[in-house]
Structures are given as structure tokens and as C-alpha cells.
Input
Amino acid sequence: MKRKEWRQLIEKCKMLSFVENGDERGHLVVVEGNRDIPFEIKRVFYIYGSDRDVIRGRHANYHSEFVLINVAGTSKVRVDDGRQQKVFDLDRPHIGIYLPRMVWKDMYEFSKDSVLLCLSSEHYDNAEYIRDYDEYIRVMEQYEDNMEKNQKSSQAD
Output
């Protein structure tokens, strides 16, 4: 990840709107990898039955990108890049949020009927998770320090 990219992580977290097809029989929303979302879908999981005061997520990923969609009910997603935070409301089944790699994420304020669908660009690998926020900050600061050193070194050449 380039330094400029890290500074723009929050801006890369964006709401996505999916086409909602329907008639008197109901609605159908289709989400296709590399078409409606910016990656191939390699893993799908969903979160349900979480109390309103529970905070899920609490991690960043070195490699995985995600799209989160509340297919039922509502929840909030707080994203954090170590410098700034932003909160997104997921309250419609045809709206999702794209989360790039290396962004810290917390999901919370789940409604009783919430079903949060999570689409991932990678298969599960516990080793790619950063689960401690202080460690996340250290990783991000170390990355920036290394980028500054490399920049100074290339300017000296």
C-alpha cells in the first residue's frame, strides 16, 4: 500500500447501491463479483442474533476487502484508518458498504432483526487479521515511517 493510498483509506470506504428488481411478488437484488462490487467474491458469511450493545468486527485485514449489506434490519459500521473515523448506516437491503484492506472496522447497533451479509475478497486466514487496535496503529505508523525513509532515500540518489 502506497503512502497516499493509506491516507485515503476512509475515502475508499464507500456506499454502494445495488439494482432492486421487483413487482407485486416481491424484490430481488443481485450482487455479482467484479461487476457490482470491485472484487471476486471468495467468501460469504453473515451475522445475526447480535444484541444492540454488541460490537462485532474490531479488526483490520492485511489482504481482505469486504462489502457489507444488511439484508434484513439495520446496523452501523464505523471505519477507522488510525487518523480519522467515519460511520455508515446500513438500513436498506439494496445498499452496501465497500471496505478496502487495512481499514479497522466495527459493526454495532444491530436491530433485533438484523442480518448482516458479508462478502469477502479472500478465503478465511486468521494470520491476516489484526485484532488489537494498538497493534493496528503501530502497523500503520510503521508503514508510514518506512515510506518516509524510502522517499528520503530515493531523493538522495
User: Anything to note?
Assistant: The chain has a mean pLDDT of 92.
